[in-house]
Predict the structure.
Amino acid sequence: MVESKHKWKAWLYLAPAIVLLLIFTVWPIFNTVHVAFQEGYNELSLIGGESTKYGFGNFVDVVKYPGFVTALKNTLLLCVLTVPISTILALVIAVCLNSIKPLSRFLQTIYFLPYVTNSIAIGMVFAAMFNIVGSNIGGEAELITTSGIINNVIEFFGGEPVNWINSGSSYWANITVMVVYIVWNALPFKILILLGGLQSVNKQYYDAAKVDGTSRFRVFTKITVPLLSPMLAYVVITGFIGGFKEYSSIVGIFGDDMGHSGNREMDTMVGYIQDNIDRWQGRASAAALILFGIIFIVTMINLYVSKKKTHY
């Protein structure tokens, strides 16, 4: 009876957070669904008195748009390439950090720095590293000022400089740069999660394996990986979700044009939504729902697979 009398205090304390969630989270979701089914929706046209009808026209326009296939292909490709690579690297680094006791704290701080750094700023740094300044790309004879830090390293080992992101660069060169950046940017969070999981593992398993003379590789595959499987499943799922929302990294390296030629050849699903949100809000909302559906399906598949492979 006493507890029930004070429940209003709990609701009073929660009220500011609930109001903010309703305004900035719940309402935008409902509004996005509402706008997605209004064919030809545009705020300016509605102000002018034009009416819209409900249907699936916005979804049809999104799928028919030539750039949609490019955006979907780039998004899927970046997810498929970056999530496994970043997860494996994060697992290896976490295991190494867990075994290095003297410098563990210092190295954890170093590896975590990218997570608290602005992604646009990081993208601009990566663009400078891969950029060729003052080259003769495009047929005009110009003095090469610098081939870029990465090309300088390649040339130091006897290789030829590569046109990574400048005009005339290949699609796969652009993808390579994006994969390197996204993997590097995704490592800190995954390392933090996996390192926390490693530090919570019961040391008796490793002591028993040591007594039996088990090799390190077998300890890693038969003890470490199975015991970390819940954390691995989590970082894989969140990695795919983050990969499907990739946008700021592309802008940081290629700018708002989402590519070196201005044809948005490196466009992603979120980039497509951002490009349409000012002109065709209906199409942008429809694309957002399509992206939500893709993320939902992939997440459900990951959850189903993780249930079969995860050891709790």
Observations:
- Residues 129 and 149 are 5 Å apart (CA to CA).
- DSSP finds 15 helices and no strands in the chain.
- The two ends are 39 Å apart (CA to CA).
